[in-house]
Amino acid sequence: MKLPKIIASVLFSLSLVSYTVTASSKNEWITLGTMAGPIPNATHSQPSNALLVNGKTYLVDAGDGTAGQLAKAGSNIKNVDAIFLSHLHFDHTGGLPAILSLRWQTETKSELTIYGPPGTKQTVDGIFAFMTYGALGHYGVPGQATAPPNRNIKVVEVVDGSVLDFDGFKLSVIRNTHYSWPKDSEEYNKFQALSFKFELPNFSVVYTGDTGPSEAVELLSQNVDLLISEMMDVEHTVNLVKRMNPMMPPKALGHMKQHLSKHHLVPADVGQLAAKAQVKKLVVTHMAPGLVTPEEFAKYTGEVAEFYKGDITIANDLDRFTLEK
Predict the structure, then answer these.
(1) Rounded CA gap, 70 and 257, in Å?
(2) Would you call 86 exposed, middle or buried from its count of C-beta atoms within 10 A (0-12, 13-18, 19+)?
(3) With a threshold of 0.70, does the pTM exceed it?
(4) Residue 239: its pLDDT value, please?
(5) Disulfide engineering: 198 pairs with which of 113, 151, 205, 207, CB 3.0-4.6 Å?
(6) Could you give phi then psi for residue 94, rounded to 5 degrees?
(7) Phi and psi (nearest 5°) for 228?
(8) Distances (CA, A) of 199 to 112, 157, 184, 318
(9) How far apart are CA 78 and CA 103, in angstroms?
(10) What residues contact 13, with CB distance under 8 A and at least 6 apart?
(11) What is the layout of strands, in order, in the sheet containing 319-322?
(12) 247 touches 280 (CB < 8 A)
């Protein structure tokens, strides 16, 4: 028998509520967005992840589209307790203005803490400045009293060696090789890219963020249950940028080539990292190019598997990984 529309609608809404509760009742890692920037893609959102622990939601990086991807995963920005930013490149922070603006617009009262490298406070303050004009006008209702954009937002800058305790896990922070500033330069301290280790009571996860080959990341990843690693086809990415920007100055293109080749991991690098660290499972994200066909997934999985013989998954947007043995 066909259900009346209103009953069907109620049952559908209840099913969504049930899904959300179920999704948040176990510890999980969700790859919300899996494609590296800076070129938007119709299939893959930019780098972002959700870490669900003890019923709480944390974001790990917040690339463009994060708010919408979180909704697709059965949660929403009002439920996020903290955001961890690995570094401040725009494909990892492009979704942050939307998250902060929409939280403010929906009168979110809970506190949100943003953890990130030096420069995170300046970045977030810049987002508040962007919000100022729209917040003052708000809905255009006379007599309205608007809260300041920075209400309930806290920023904590972390560096190499930082260790923080949360409800259900410990976070360890190390510096990686996504930048190559000379150690005696002002830039070395000013611009930092970080990798994170999340240690739950019975499960461990390392998130490389963006990095080149790094002994520090290898050490951090030793024997972890799950390694979430970036990966990039450098040659393909350079050719794509050249096609889309045929008038790009040679010097600028040279700098990009240098950055991509030194500061990212190609499939062989990822395989070697996972093998040397003896990780239990490897999940690849931050892919460039964005993969679509089974043949593409097979190609890159095979290149990693030449070095790492364990469990390999090249993630799609919204893939979920249970954090338990």
Answers:
(1) 33
(2) buried
(3) yes
(4) 75
(5) 205
(6) -60, -25
(7) -100, 105
(8) 21, 20, 33, 22
(9) 6
(10) none
(11) 153-157, 112-116, 80-84, 56-62, 48-53, 28-33, 319-322
(12) no
